[in-house]
C-alpha cells in the first residue's frame, strides 16, 4: 500500500470513519439482481475491490479476500414510513456513522428499491482505496449514457475528463519532482516525532530548505487554530447528512460571469453566507469572524483519475462569515482562491500525508490534530458529467457524496454538478450541528442574493459591494442580514 493510502487507512477513529459516502437517486426502480450483476462485471473489474487492507503496525498491504462474498457488499435496505427524503437522510446518516468491517474489503452498496417513486443507492468506500475524484470516476464507470447497457459504448463520455481538465488548469499542474521534494520535507519534519511542534529549530530548518514548498509548510504550521464556534465542537460518533434541492448550473454560471468570478467562487460564497445566517440565528456574535475550510486539490492528470489511490493535496481557504455584505464575501472568497492557485499548498500537504504514512500512529494522530485544529470544515466541489446517466437501466436523477473529515473537523460541505444542475450537501457531527437541514436550506437564499444583485445592477459598469448592499435593502426592505 502506498504511503499516502496507508495514512488514510490509519486516520480512522470512532469519531471519524474514513469513508467516502455517496447517494444516487433514481427516477425509476433499480432492482437488486441487476445491481449485483453490474457490480460484479464493472466494479470488480478493478481488482483492488476484491482485496482487504491489512495493517501490521509497521506496514500496510493489500490482500485478496479468500472469503469474498458479493451478497455482503451489495445489500438491500428498506426505508420506514413514507420512504421520503427525511427517511433517506436518516439512513445515510446512520451509514456514514458506521465504520466498515476491516476483516473484509472496505466497501458496501446499500440499495433502497422503493424511494420517492424510484430507488436510491448509498455507497460507502474507504478512503484508503482512492480519493474522491478517482472514486467518483469509478462510480461513473458503472453508468451508461442510455438506458440500454452496452459494454464499453460511449462510457468515455461519462468520465469527468473534459470538465476536470478545466478544473486542473485552474489550479496547477505540479512537476513530479516537486511532489518528491514535498514528501522528503514532510519526512524531515515528522521525523522529529511528538516534539516537532515545540522544537525551536524547526523554523530554522524550514528556512534553510528554501523554496515555495518549505515556505508553505512553515506558514501552515504557524497558522492559528480556527476560532471556537458551534460549528467546531468536540466530536461524537454520530454524523448527520442532508442535501438541498438542486439548482440550475446555468444560473450560477451567469452570476459568476457577471460578477467576474468562477462558479466555484459563487458556490463557496453562498455556502459561507449560509453558515453566517445559521450562526446569526443561533445568537452568535460573528462580527468580523473568519473560519477556514480545507479544500482537496487534484494532483494528477484527470485522464488518470480512474486509477485508484490517493493523489491530492489540501489547501486552507478562508470563509469570511463575519462579512455582512454578500458581494464583499464573494470578492474575499474569490481573492483567497486566486492566492491559493498561485501557491504550492496542495503539494506541501500531499508531502505531509505521504510522510505521515511512514510514522508511528501516535505521531500521525498528533500531526492530524495539529492541522485539523486550523479548519472548521472540508469543502469539495466536483464537476460531474453534464448529461443524464443510467445505472443498470435506471436513470440517475440526483446524486451527492461526502468525503470524510479528519482529526477534529466535524463538517463537510459537498458541491457536485450533474446534468446541468448543482447538488449541495452537508455532513455534520451531531454534537455540533444536529440538524444540517437548518444550514442547507439557506444555501439557495444566499445564492439568490447574488442573483438579485446581478439582475438589478447596471452591467455596463463594475458591480461594487456598496451598490449591492443598497440593492438588497431596496429589494427586501431591510439591511443585509
Automatic annotation (TrEMBL):
It comes from the Bacteria. Belongs to the long-chain O-acyltransferase family. One of its GO terms (molecular function) is diacylglycerol O-acyltransferase activity. One of its GO terms (biological process) is glycerol metabolic process. This is diacylglycerol O-acyltransferase. Residues 1-266 form the O-acyltransferase WSD1-like N-terminal domain. Coiled coil: none annotated. It comes from Chiayiivirga flava. Its EC number is 2.3.1.20. Keywords: Acyltransferase, Glycerol metabolism, Lipid biosynthesis, Lipid metabolism, Transferase. It holds the Pfam family WS_DGAT_cat. It catalyses: an acyl-CoA + a 1,2-diacyl-sn-glycerol = a triacyl-sn-glycerol + CoA. SUPFAM superfamilies: CoA-dependent acyltransferases (SSF52777).
Amino acid at each position: 500500500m502506498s504511503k499516502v493510502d496507508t495514512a488514510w487507512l490509519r486516520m480512522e477513529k470512532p469519531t471519524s470513519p474514513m469513508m467516502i459516502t455517496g447517494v444516487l437517486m433514481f427516477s425509476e426502480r433499480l432492482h437488486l439482481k441487476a445491481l449485483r450483476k453490474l457490480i460484479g462485471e464493472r466494479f470488480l473489474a478493478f481488482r483492488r475491490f476484491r482485496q482487504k487492507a491489512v495493517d501490521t503496525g509497521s506496514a500496510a498491504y493489500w490482500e485478496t479476500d479468500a472469503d469474498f462474498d458479493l451478497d455482503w457488499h451489495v445489500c438491500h435496505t428498506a426505508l420506514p414510513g413514507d420512504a421520503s427524503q427525511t427517511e433517506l437522510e436518516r439512513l445515510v446518516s446512520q451509514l456514514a456513522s458506521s465504520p466498515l468491517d476491516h476483516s473484509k474489503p472496505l466497501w458496501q452498496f446499500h440499495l433502497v428499491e422503493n424511494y420517492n417513486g424510484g430507488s436510491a443507492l448509498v455507497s460507502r468506500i474507504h478512503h484508503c482505496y482512492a480519493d474522491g475524484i478517482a472514486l467518483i470516476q469509478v462510480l461513473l464507470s458503472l453508468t451508461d449514457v442510455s438506458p440500454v447497457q452496452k459494454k464499453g459504448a460511449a462510457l468515455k463520455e461519462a468520465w469527468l475528463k473534459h470538465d476536470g481538465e478545466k478544473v486542473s488548469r485552474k489550479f496547477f499542474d505540479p512537476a513530479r519532482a516537486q511532489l518528491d521534494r514535498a514528501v522528503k520535507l514532510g519526512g524531515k519534519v515528522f521525523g522529529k516525532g511528538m516534539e516537532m511542534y515545540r522544537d525551536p529549530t524547526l523554523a530554522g530548518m524550514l528556512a534553510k530548505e528554501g523554496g515555495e514548498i518549505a515556505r508553505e509548510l512553515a506558514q501552515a504550521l504557524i497558522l492559528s487554530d480556527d476560532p471556537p464556534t458551534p460549528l467546531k465542537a468536540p466530536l461524537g460518533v454520530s454524523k448527520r447528512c442532508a442535501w438541498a434541492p438542486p439548482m440550475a448550473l446555468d444560473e450560477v454560471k451567469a452570476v459568476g460571469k457577471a460578477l467576474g468570478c468562477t462558479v466555484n467562487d459563487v458556490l463557496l460564497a453562498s455556502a459561507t453566507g449560509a453558515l453566517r445566517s445559521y450562526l446569526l440565528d443561533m445568537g452568535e456574535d460573528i462580527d468580523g469572524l473568519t473560519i477556514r475550510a480545507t479544500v482537496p486539490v487534484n494532483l494528477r492528470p484527470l485522464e488518470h483519475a480512474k486509477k485508484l489511490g490517493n493523489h491530492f493535496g489540501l489547501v486552507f481557504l478562508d470563509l469570511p462569515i463575519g462579512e455582512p455584505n454578500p458581494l464583499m464575501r464573494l470578492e474575499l472568497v474569490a481573492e483567497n482562491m486566486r492566492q491559493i492557485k498561485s501557491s504550492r499548498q496542495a503539494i506541501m500537504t500531499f508531502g505531509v500525508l505521504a510522510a505521515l504514512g511512514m510514522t508511528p500512529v501516535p505521531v500521525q494522530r498528533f500531526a492530524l490534530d495539529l492541522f485539523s485544529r486550523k479548519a472548521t470544515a472540508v469543502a469539495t466541489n466536483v464537476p460531474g458529467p453534464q448529461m443524464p446517466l443510467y445505472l443498470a437501466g435506471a436513470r440517475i436523477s440526483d446524486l451527492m457524496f461526502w468525503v470524510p473529515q479528519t482529526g477534529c473537523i466535524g463538517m463537510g460541505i459537498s458541491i457536485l454538478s450533474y446534468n446541468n444542475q448543482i447538488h449541495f450537501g452537508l455532513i455534520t457531527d451531531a454534537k455540533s450541528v444536529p440538524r444540517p437541514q437548518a444550514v442547507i436550506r439557506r444555501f439557495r437564499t444566499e445564492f439568490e442574493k447574488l442573483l438579485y444583485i446581478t439582475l438589478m445592477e447596471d452591467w455596463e459598469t463594475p458591480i461594487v459591494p456598496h451598490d449591492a448592499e443598497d440593492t438588497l435593502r431596496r429589494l427586501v426592505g431591510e439591511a443585509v442580514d
